[in-house]
Write a structure and sequence with these properties.
mainly alpha, 83 residues
Length: 83
Amino acid sequence: MPASRSRHAGDVVADPHFIERGVFPELPDGSRTTALPWMDAEGWRGRFTPAPGLGADNDYVFRELLGLSWADVAELTRAGVGR
């Protein structure tokens, strides 16, 4: 049965084997992401963007999806919801 030692995520991202193969491409903001599991003939693996920041989509969720008013959203923000 194949086995491997447990590794810290930072060690995995810094592994030369994975770096050479582009498994964790560096994004414009300096963060890294997991590469898509496919690659086309030119080596393109898709468009990578950083994950949204905490609360980046709050307005969309509260206003568009839940239909809350600006006053409701302001009250939730004051209460510490959705930070």
